Amino acid sequence: MEKKLYSQKLRDIVESSTIHGIPNALRAKHTVLRIFWIFNVIVKLEIVQSFNSEFPAISFCNINPNDFTIEENLRNVSFFLNESFIYEKNFNSKSCDTQMNNILNAQLPNLKKFTLSKMLISCLYDNKPCNTNNFFQQRSFNFGNCFTFNSGRNLTGHSIPVLNSKRPGMVNGLRLKLFIGAPEYQPCWEDRYGALIVVHNRTFPPLFAEEGLFIQAGSETNFILNKVSINKLPSPFSNCVVNASNRNEFDSKSYRDAFDLSGCYRQKWCLLNCSVQKATQDNTPLCNSFNFTSLIERLRCLNNLENLTNYYNVCFPECPIECDYSYFNIFKSVSSFPSYSYSQFLLSNSSFRSRYPYENITLEQVRNSVVSFNAYFDSSNHQKIDEIPESNFETLLGTLGGQLGLFLGVSFLSFAEIFEILFELLLIFLNNRKNTKTCNEIIRKSLN
């Protein structure tokens, strides 16, 4: 009875109110329609254009990591396979297995890789010569020795100045010419040859297998760069990692393992490492159940990571994204390389000729053993994407007032009606309490 009295009084007051939205909400028969009169949601995204002059880190590798022009490499691999995979040209042999690189990495880890001095033919940055001391060496499981330009370190690991991009354009960027090996000494288990290039933020190590782009022999490839920086809002807006240089920023084994790989956290490192570990764990009992007749078959089974992406969904909760990160949009253009005259120029250089294991070198062999690569910005601007709160407390009050006025018909004078509603409800409450007290006293006296 008392509850009905409250609701009836409230309805009588509200239906005569000048606040137009509230009577409409009260008269609406469905809950969804009532909510429509009260709530409104806005999502805002801001994109800012600004200039960043720091040139990115550029890493490159040879697609075929082992240098088989080295006699020791040929001898060791031929002994392991029990066949001479280069000289016999036996293309139906077991050496042509597509998993052979992984098998050799596991069983013959001391095979000699391509060195920077053998791969680097020429280097220019901002139209000035650069040399082997401008590169830092890294190791990739799939691609052997890889080398990074503008990492802030040299081949011995010592710090060197970070280079800036002063002007856009090809002449002011990085220009490399690389030797990728004599074509006849490319192994048959690799169905491609050339170089792998990764453009990345220098504060993070490159992900060669995931982010690398191939450039082909006999061509000059331009990488036209545009940097994109992203700044995400942390909790409660998202679960991104604020301080990626803190090993304990996120409570996850996969997070800490990814951090330990490079000294800083990166989600792509975390997802890759976590997925490889889980795939290997699943493969191990399966491979142990098979009666393999050779070590190569067992290693091929253990290294079967073709379904790696199936584990990403499992690893995502353990690998949060960084709040601040950047990447590079890359546009490619390609032309033929080298020209007839430049091939003659290369062959006139004894240092270049010494890279081949034979004397008579044809122009076709030159074309199939060199690549040219250029990386540069096309403009002085880069994109910056920031997530910003929809509103702070002050703007929230202003927005709320505007929404109330727009959708509910609230004005300054309408607040007097709100106080009237509250006062009427208070009178009902006090009157009910007084009546209840009087009734209780009458009952008590009658019982006495």
UniProtKB/TrEMBL annotation:
One of its GO terms (molecular function) is ligand-gated sodium channel activity. It holds the Pfam family ASC. The keyword Aminoacyl-tRNA synthetase does not apply. It is found in: Membrane. It is a multi-pass membrane protein. The keyword Iron-sulfur does not apply. One of its GO terms (cellular component) is plasma membrane. Its main location: membrane. The chain crosses the membrane at residues 404-430. Keywords: Ion channel, Ion transport, Membrane, Sodium, Sodium channel, Sodium transport, Transmembrane, Transmembrane helix, Transport. Belongs to the amiloride-sensitive sodium channel (TC 1.A.6) family. This is Uncharacterized protein.
